[in-house]
Amino acid sequence: MNTAIVKGSSDYRDCGLVFPPGFTFGSATASYQVEGAFDEDGRGPSIWDTFSKTPGKVWNGDNGDVACDHYHRLESDLDLMNDLGLAAYRFSIAWPRIQPTGTGRLNQPGIDFYSRLVDGLLERGIKPVATLYHWDLPQPLEDAGGWPARATADAFADYAAIMGTALGDRVHTWTTLNEPWCSAYLGYGQGGHAPGRHEPAAALAAVHHLNLAHGRALEALRATSTGSPEYSVTLNFHVLRGVGDGADEAMRRIDALANRAFTGPMLKGAYPADLLEDTASVTDWSFVHEGDLATIHQPIDVLGVNYYSTATVRLWDGETPMQHNDGHKAAGGGTAWPGSDRIVEFVQQPGPYTAMGWNIAPEGLEELLLGLSAQFPQQSFMITENGAAFDDTVAADGTVPDPTRVDYLRRHLTAAHRALEQGVDLRGYFVWSLLDNFEWGYGYAKRFGIVRVDFDTLERTVKGSGLWFRELASTGVLPSSGNA
Ligand code: FCB
User: Fold this and answer.
1) Residues forming the active site
2) What spacing in Å lies between the alpha carbon of 51 and ligand 1's midpoint?
């Protein structure tokens, strides 16, 4: 392929850039979003089963009962990954398949499914990157208090030990949590995600117990894995812009809640003092016990970075209607920003936008990686999610050309490459997502896949972006948008 070289373009539309040997190109999914088989082989209910079946919570009343039917189509989906030239596959394990009630009894058929998945990946030369928790908490644990309850972190450590024992001889990378920001603040504060609670203090308790769960799971995985896996966690960083008087203060507050509430304890061993002050009227943080921070603060091999767009904040004037453009579907009254919800507003950002209404800003990814690398100079990074939803159409010949998604990916991969060239220890890039799937509160209405799924027939069709990504993954050279 004679890809011309374009470098340093002002709009991040480079091509011909060569990624270093060993740079991992993969794609990602999550259990509830793709598996289906919601009540098979002993799987118990999760909070997303309950939430999606509660009227009004998910668009169109959609749920994950069938999803992409990946549970039954494992072999052909593995072949698809192979055809796409993926070097790694990031998937998550459904805790309620492993422990249907969240504690105690182990469900062997659940283990067997993931064991087959891992073996199938290894047979095809694809590295298994396994996330323990991508939001499907066993419902009985929520009934006992959920993440605001400390016992959930204890249960998570037991679950992690089960998985370390079962798969720790073969998994390439263990990821404890996916985006604990969403689990805590959208689940317990804003309410747009399961379990849909609107309790600001509980959201902050959930932050801490998720952090604790991360630390406890690292201990359990390290104690039980007999191979030589790498250890990681995936965070969704908020890349902030500020406008108006007090822009810095608005950004500081949101950065504390969104980013430093996790990187503080995990990578520095302390909660930021300003976070504790900003939230003092909501909670006294007495759920942080002696020794917790030492448990949470453990070395990780790779920090997983999820990035889609930026957010723009401003100190609210207290008079004009408050704007809530933080990228999340309104959920009736709750807040994802405890302690700052009457102080900071999220304003509309300049386009272009994806079908999620998220602004396209590849420069934000470069800035994020450079900023993290400056803050944590010894740390390696992996982009564990990046991608875009668009309203794809199937052409008359049955193909799915999706040039806007190709353009999005190309621009963000340009940003990733620029970060690499500036010295960031970036090890890989996972496109979200392998398949169109159940996009949480939006159901099946938002398509992120590089492979189309027809939700009537469940048939898979590789999109133009899938062909484009295959070229990238197999050559390590960034194609232009025109080659797919
Ligand atoms: C992330 C989630 C992932 C997917 C993308 C679009 O926040 O981790 O499951 O929904 O957003």
Assistant:
1) 179, 385
2) 17
Residue with tokens 């295959």: 470
Q: Where are the beta strands (DSSP E) in 288-359?
A: 302-306, 310-315, 344-347
Residue 19: name the closest of 467, 469, 418 by CA. Answer: 418
Average pLDDT over residues 435-452: 98
Distance CA(438)–CA(436), nearest Å, equals 7
- The pTM score is 0.98
**Which residues are CB-neighbours of 333 under 8 A, at least 6 positions away?**
191, 198
Asked if residue 366 has its Cβ within 6 Å of ligand 1, the reply is no
**Token pair 């499914």 in the structure block, residue:** 113
Which residues have C-beta within 8 Å of that of residue 18, sequence separation ≥ 6?
Answer: 476, 477, 478
Count of helix runs (H) and strand runs (E) in the chain: 16, 13
432 Cβ closer than 6 Å to some ligand 1 atom: yes
Q: Distance of CA 368 to CAs 11, 304, 308, 424, Å?
A: 17, 12, 11, 11
What are the pLDDT digits (tens) for 113-153?
A: 999 999 999 999 999 999 999 999 999 999 999 999 999 99
- 308 to each of 83, 388, 464, how far by Cα in Å? 26, 7, 20
CA of 338 to the centre of ligand 1 (A): 22
Rounded to whole angstroms, how far apart are CA atoms 224 and 121?
21
Residue to substitute in 440, 442, 446 for testing ligand 1 pocket (most ligand atoms within 8 angstroms of CB):
440
179 lines ligand 1 (CB under 6 A): yes
Q: How confident is the model at residue 3 (pLDDT cuts 50, 70, 90)?
A: low
CA 387 to ligand 1 centroid distance, Å: 9
Q: Is 236 in the pocket of ligand 1 (CB under 6 A)?
A: yes
SS3 10: coil
Residue pair 113/166 in contact (Cβ under 8 Å)? The answer is no
Asked if residue 181 has its Cβ within 6 Å of ligand 1, the reply is: no
Task: Give pLDDT, residue 75.
Answer: 98
- Tell me which residue of 276, 242, 241 sits closest to 260, measured CA to CA: 276
Summarised one tens digit per residue, pLDDT across range 448-461 is 999 999 999 999 99
Q: What is 102-168 written as a DSSP string?
A: SSS---HHHHHHHHHHHHHHHHTT-EEEEEEESS--BHHHHHTT-TTSHHHHHHHHHHHHHHHHHHT
What is the separation, in whole angstroms, between the first and last Cα of the chain? 11
Taking the centre of ligand 1 as the mean of its atom positions, its distance from the CA of residue 320, in whole angstroms, is: 32
